[in-house]
Amino acid sequence: MKLMKTEDAIGQVLCHDITQIIPGVTKDAVFRKGHIITEEDIPVLLSVGKEHIYIWEKDEHMLHENEAAQILYEMCKNDHMHPSEVKEGKIELIAEQGGLLKVDREKLKKVNGLGEMMIATRHGNTCVKKGDKLAGTRIIPLVIEKEKMERAKAVCQDGPILTLKPLHKKKVAILTTGSEVYHGRIEDKFTPVLVEKLKEYDCEMIFHEVYDDDHEAITKGCLQAIEQGAELVLCTGGMSVDPDDRTPLAIKNTGARIVSYGAPVLPGAMFLLSYYQERIPIVGLPGCVMYAKRTIFDLALPRLLADDEITAEELAALGEGGLCLNCPVCTYPNCGFGKGW
């Protein structure tokens, strides 16, 4: 790359896009990389402030910004995503279908720490729709050392930074617990809430029963639901520390591995997560899921439907960002709630 006076650049090849900004009208390239400069181009270049201009000089040790941006894209891309057009050293990644976005944060941090390049993504563990922007990449200078890009590529040699996991339309069982509902003293208002949330993901409720506060019956109900094909079991009620709240014991007695009883999330502190035979989630849902707009259940459900195993460490990390502010107008997921994991 060589810098020369614009008036002397006739016949030379541009090595980068030239952008023209007219407030409220346009922000776009008036000349693209590879354009051969003509005499007629000189006034236009001067009008956008280019009294000197870089022209292309091939250097075997350097990469043009667009070539290097392609490398950043390759480091990020995975199944179910495609690139935007490369422009001024920038490439964006677009979702080809809906799903759960996963981000390898350590790799992302290492690449961004190399300097002269950047990758910005959405938060990981969030749902995206077809056509959503997943990430943007950019090379900062006009040219960059090949050796630096090789170091960046080495960070991702065992896999890309992004993953888009499809959501599965699971068969769901709902076990409503509590003597007050079982004996008809109050109406079951919990199940309709869950059914509506499951509809957002086209899941099918194949099993629903109401149980007294009898932990043995609830245990049998969980196992019966799984025998009937349930791929996700949701138990409502009986999740607090009152002596007659028996749902946690019932779930434990199924033989499921308890990941956590409790989560640093409000609403949703009394959340229980377990895995039966390491593949079927059995979940205990606290009462707040019935009346609060967004809770721990909204954070966990997409991951459960994507077969993305949730660990105790990840649940613990939800403490930062785990406080829902109950805004008058809910903007979730475009807010900080649940962005800690």
From TrEMBL:
<keyword id="KW-0500">Molybdenum</keyword>
<keyword id="KW-0808">Transferase</keyword>
<comment type="pathway">
    <text>Cofactor biosynthesis; molybdopterin biosynthesis.</text>
</comment>
<dbReference type="InterPro" id="IPR001453">
    <property type="entry name" value="MoaB/Mog_dom"/>
</dbReference>
<dbReference type="Pfam" id="PF00994">
    <property type="entry name" value="MoCF_biosynth"/>
</dbReference>
<dbReference type="GO" id="GO:0006777">
    <property type="term" value="P:Mo-molybdopterin cofactor biosynthetic process"/>
</dbReference>
<comment type="function">
    <text>Catalyzes the insertion of molybdate into adenylated molybdopterin with the concomitant release of AMP.</text>
</comment>
<protein>
    <recommendedName>
        <fullName>Molybdopterin molybdenumtransferase</fullName>
        <ecNumber>2.10.1.1</ecNumber>
    </recommendedName>
</protein>
<dbReference type="GO" id="GO:0046872">
    <property type="term" value="F:metal ion binding"/>
</dbReference>
<keyword id="KW-0479">Metal-binding</keyword>
<keyword id="KW-0501">Molybdenum cofactor biosynthesis</keyword>
<keyword id="KW-0460">Magnesium</keyword>
<dbReference type="GO" id="GO:0005829">
    <property type="term" value="C:cytosol"/>
</dbReference>
<comment type="similarity">
    <text>Belongs to the MoeA family.</text>
</comment>
<dbReference type="InterPro" id="IPR036425">
    <property type="entry name" value="MoaB/Mog-like_dom_sf"/>
</dbReference>
<dbReference type="GO" id="GO:0061599">
    <property type="term" value="F:molybdopterin molybdotransferase activity"/>
</dbReference>
<feature type="domain" description="MoaB/Mog">
    <location>
        <begin position="173"/>
        <end position="306"/>
    </location>
</feature>
<dbReference type="InterPro" id="IPR038987">
    <property type="entry name" value="MoeA-like"/>
</dbReference>
